[in-house]
UniProtKB/TrEMBL annotation:
Superkingdom of the organism of origin: Eukaryota
Organismal lineage: Eukaryota, Viridiplantae, Streptophyta, Embryophyta, Tracheophyta
Compositional bias segments (type: Acidic residues): 439-459
Residue stretches making up the hAT-like transposase RNase-H fold domain: 320-417
Domain HAT C-terminal dimerisation: 501-583
Compositionally skewed regions (Basic and acidic residues) per UniProt: 460-474
Native organism: Camelina sativa (False flax)
Positions of region (Disordered): 436-474
Protein name, entry field: Zinc finger BED domain-containing protein RICESLEEPER 1-like isoform X1
Length: 585
């Protein structure tokens, strides 16, 4: 007994010594520890948008030395790690997009440093680049989550001028091998981005991608950009002197705001004070200059027309990111409001400005009507009801838009999805690559606990496997019936003998109106019922109607690049901007 105990103790000591030796062997070297430290800092800087040169600031370097006195951080080493992180994450992003069975929209945005205040006072350090082209992929993953990945953030001055509009798209598509995934391009509202300019790229990608579901790449235009240009059309009638007069009257701190909603707020303050006759009643205004009657007409015109735009913009851009289904009825509402204001106008100045912005609006509406209306039909709160209602209103539907055109487009789109093999399976929520690492760690923790359970399950699984093998070996003669297989593609789906999913969806009553309704959540829950139509909905609803949201949607010029990239080399700026959304891959 004593001997056995001694042997047992000796065995435990041996195992303990082996474990200690093993841990000593596995302990990383100082070089590896330093590399891991700089990699952690690089990830922090990428997530937070911090320029690695910040390490060179003495106070920051001192702070970092307190955190880790063994390895003082080096800006060059952090930059090196950031580039390595980008390469690693990019391969994972490419793999994901290659295996993704949905459609992708690419958005193009030219970001320019244009604000003098930002340039002169806000930015620390040298400005190496004043403009960047941001190319972003928009899609909804298999967990029905909206994704927005920057694929390229470039400031390449070597691109030939004749290729400047096409190069970013072609380069990103080739780089990520997504020729067969791109269904739409979201572009600025600019004369340079028209069908003639983009036609060579469309032909190129259509020939290479051979997208059977959406063979023709759609050209779409940014809604926030439209609103900015419409507001600018009205703002152009206000002189700098007039703005300064109003600024002094209402206590407006500065006229240098880069957001048009701020300008609207302060000018509306002036209009409200005038309506109250405050400038005549209150002696405090006696020593101030006042706008003339003609100037007040210009200010009131701006407040009325920009106010209509702001009402809609606030619903679209403030709060959570909106899916495409909410744009049709809100932009139609804007058209109705502007038409009402124009109908009751009695000022030539107001009428001139209103007609100018309506001309711009109508072009956008005609270009975007089909995709916006289709997205609206895929909202179960509307289906075809709002579209039919809109088309019946002569005061807004002056162009004679037909509901039948939209339904024909959706029916043809549904038929192409139904004819593809992948669309016959419902979209099932899967463990996304975002969560793979955390799941691996959990699996490692519980492997020991599950070993016994797995042993018990082996016999049951063996029986199940044999049954599956029998089912899989069962011949399916229909696979060899060429004519019948062509029939299935022609008809759309084996289950469409009487009624398609689209017909079934449209026949059901619309949902009760709920402002907080989430379309993606609804389609995720109904994907088993509508396996084909839910895929159509996922790809249509993932189309971004605006590049900018929230505060950025109100800029008066183009959006500005983040300050931290302005003093970076192009390669590093691209790596840090792209990797931010890829770090969780």
């Amino acid at each position: 007994m004593v001997k056995g105990d001694f042997a047992s103790g000796s065995c435990l000591d041996t195992r303990k010594n082996d474990l200690v030796d093993s841990m000593a062997d596995e302990e990383p070297s100082l070089e590896e520890q330093e590399k891991a430290c700089h990699k952690a800092i690089a990830k922090w800087f990428i997530r937070s948008g911090i320029n690695p040169n910040k390490i060179k600031i003495p106070s920051f370097a001192k702070f970092m030395s307190y955190l880790n006195p063994r390895f003082p951080p080096s800006a060059s080493k952090v930059e090196k790690e950031a580039l390595e992180i980008y390469k690693e994450c990019k391969e994972k992003a490419k793999k994901f997009l290659k295996e993704f069975d949905g459609q992708v929209t690419l958005s193009y945005e030219w970001m320019v440093l244009g604000n003098e205040y930002t340039r002169g006072y806000s930015i620390k350090g040298p400005i190496l680049h004043e403009d960047f082209v941001c190319l972003t992929a928009h899609f909804v993953d298999d967990n029905w989550k909206m994704k927005k990945w920057i694929l390229a953030y470039t400031t390449d001055k070597k691109v030939p001028m004749e290729d400047i509009f096409i190069y970013p798209f072609r380069n990103a598509v080739q780089d990520f091998e997504i020729e067969s995934k791109v269904s739409a391009l979201l572009l600025p509202n600019d004369v340079d981005y028209d069908e003639v300019t983009l036609d060579p790229f469309r032909k190129w990608i259509e020939e290479r991608g051979k997208n059977q579901i959406i063979p023709r790449v759609s050209l779409l235009y940014c809604c926030a950009d439209l609103f900015r240009l419409m507001v600018d059309d009205v703002y152009s009638g206000l002189s700098g002197y007039l703005l300064e007069v109003v600024r002094m009257l209402v206590g407006w701190g500065s006229c240098s705001s880069t957001n048009w909603n701020v300008t609207l707020f302060h000018l509306q303050q002036g209009v409200d004070l005038k309506a109250e006759d405050a400038f005549s009643k209150d002696e405090v205004y006696d020593d101030y200059d006042k706008p003339s009657d003609e100037d007040w007409i210009k200010i009131e015109t701006y407040c009325t027309l920009a106010g209509c735009i702001y009402k809609v913009a606030k619903e679209l851009f403030e709060g959570e990111y909106s899916t495409a289904n909410v744009f049709f009825h809100l932009i139609a509402e804007l058209k109705f409001m502007l038409n009402q204001e124009l109908a009751k106008a009695d000022s030539d100045y107001f009428i001139g400005k209103a007609k100018k912005i309506m001309e711009r609006f109508d072009k956008y509406w005609n270009d975007m009507f089909l995709i916006l209306a289709t997205a609206s039909v895929l909202d179960p709160r509307f289906k075809t009801k709002y579209l039919e209602f809109y088309c019946s209103k002569k005061e807004v539907n002056v162009e004679g838009s037909k509901a039948e055109t939209v339904l024909d487009y959706l029916s043809n789109l549904y038929a192409r999805y139904a004819a593809s093999n992948i669309s016959r399976k419902p979209i099932c929520s899967v463990a996304t690559i975002d969560s793979c690492d955390s799941e691996k760690e959990e699996e490692e923790d519980y492997d020991d606990e599950w070993e016994e359970e797995e042993d018990d399950d082996d016999e049951r699984e063996g029986k199940d496997d044999k049954q599956k093998e029998k089912e899989e070996k069962k011949p399916d003669a229909y696979k060899d019936f060429v004519l019948f297989q062509e029939y299935l593609k022609f008809e759309g789906s084996p289950r469409e003998l009487h009624e398609s999913e689209l017909d079934s969806y449209l026949k059901e009553p619309v949902m009760e109106w709920n402002k907080d309704f989430k379309a993606l959540d609804w389609w995720r829950e109904e994907s088993q019922k509508y396996p084909i139509l839910s895929r159509v909905a996922r790809d249509i609803l993932s189309i971004p109607i605006s590049c900018a949201t929230s505060w950025d949607a109100y800029v008066v010029f183009k959006r500005e690049p983040p300050e931290f990239v302005l003093s970076m080399e192009p390669e590093l700026a691209n790596a840090m901007m792209c990797s931010k959304k890829w770090l969780r891959l």
